[in-house]
Design brief:
Strand content of chain A: 5-15%
Number of helices of chain A: 5
Strand order of the largest sheet of chain A: 1-4
Distance between the termini of chain A: 19 Å
Largest sheet of chain A: 2 strands, parallel
Largest interface: A-B, 38 and 38 residues
Oligomer: homodimer
Order of helices and strands of chain A: EHHHEEHHE
Amino acid sequence: MLIEIDFNSSEALYMQLRNQIILGIARDMLRDGDSLPSVRQLASELGVNMHTVNKAYALLRQDGYVKLDRRNGAVISVSLENRSYQVESIHSDMEMIVAQAICKDISLNEMQKLVQDMYDAFSARQTSIDIIVEEKE
Amino acid sequence: MLIEIDFNSSEALYMQLRNQIILGIARDMLRDGDSLPSVRQLASELGVNMHTVNKAYALLRQDGYVKLDRRNGAVISVSLENRSYQVESIHSDMEMIVAQAICKDISLNEMQKLVQDMYDAFSARQTSIDIIVEEKE
DNA sequence: CCTTTGTTATATTCATGCTATAACAAAGGA
DNA sequence: TCCTTTGTTATAGCATGAATATAACAAAGG
């Protein structure tokens, strides 16, 4: 799967990394049991520090997307245990998006179509085996 | 209308302020032509620095929610000029939310119901005249 | 005149992001 | 047994951004 890092973005590198992994899971390019590169390996390929990758992995574990152990490295494992916390986070994020949409005269139908199109797009994804690293300029 | 500021939140104060104003507009508590408190007055009531409020106001102007002039202060004025930029921002934000939702087994129907409920909630709001300031602990 | 408005400038303090280097225990392979 | 690799932790340094503190300015209005 593809990991894109934009060094010119104002978004933190570890946050970009976390988001890319979550997108990969949603697109079914990363499945339960799949291994992620080790923190040192991925850091080396991306050209960032080890701790930056480690921070992303620790965040993904905290939010229930991967499990980390010393022998297998980081392994995809989506947990539904603390789902209520995740759902609450999604709610508040969605509230701000809907508020902006209403202000900018985006109708309910437009928004629901947007959500549906995104669900379709995520479901229609292909699968790739290797993790390819790509950096934006 | 009510402005809540959480000093313990990890979210920047000026960003919280910006979001609260946008929520106020979406709830129809703030309408086109309504005046916001001056940067100094609101800063004084909230107990924050003048520049923090000024930063939020400048951001709101940049995103087309208010107009600022020297005589009337900040006035609500939702612009649909640079809408394409706003829509693009909404799209990328929504993409991450949907990705997380798919990972956490939230169905398309659940998400669309969530969007609809939020549209309903925003439309069913009452109106208040004064701007009341409230700080979280 | 005087006040208030947004705006700009400078400086300081503090938190965060990122890097650099190092070391540790645990597991697996040769 | 030795070596490598794994995640993890610790410490330090640097850069950036957030927030504050003062100060000053032009423009508008009473």
